[in-house]
Amino acid sequence: MKLTKKLFIYRILLVAIFAAIMGISINTKNYILSIIAFITLLLTSIIINTKLKKQPEATADERDWKIGGKSAFWTIRIFSIPAALLGFVFVMMKDEPLIQQNHLDIIGQTLSFSVCAILLSYSIIFRILRNKGE
What are the CA-CA distances from residue 61 to residues 65, 68, 114, 132 (Å)? Predict the structure, then answer.
């Protein structure tokens, strides 16, 4: 099996359908259905990936690795700066009398810790790969 545009679209649709099922089941407090949906999606993904890996692997040159590194760098930068600023604003707005949402503090802390975790993992993985010589 080869990863074609059609198969890629099917995979995206599959994830969207299971995400909708999980969201609805969590909102209705039907956690067993969300666990079953997650396990089904995981098994389906594993089956598709094992069929895809049986194909001969395409070779990548240095340009692909350089483009991948640049895209990872810019993705992290584009996500982390706005997320950190938004997290900071949410934490500051927790005691604002005009805003009745007291969840903003939790959302802000989650965003801030997510940014820290992403940047920390990026740094660790970068150092590991640099020491390995890749």
Answer: 7, 11, 32, 19
Q: Is the Cβ–Cβ distance between 132 and 104 less than 8 Å? A: no
The domain tally of the chain equals 2
The percentage of residues in the chain with a pLDDT greater than 90, rounded to a whole number, is 0
The whole-number average pLDDT for the span 64-81 is: 84
Q: State whether 93 and 43 are in the same domain.
A: no
Q: What is the DSSP string of 29-60?
A: T-HHHHHHHHHHHHHHHHHHHHHHHTSPPPP-
- pLDDT: which is higher, 36 or 4: 36
Identify the H or E element spanning 94.
none
Degrees to nearest 5, angle at CA 90 with 88 and 96? 120
Q: Which two tokens stand for residue 69?
A: 């590194």
Q: Is the pLDDT of residue 22 over 60?
A: yes
Query: Is 80 in contact with 115 (CB distance < 8 Å)?
Result: yes
Contact of 102 with 94, CB cutoff 8 Å: yes
User: Which residues constitute the domain of residue 116?
Assistant: 62-132
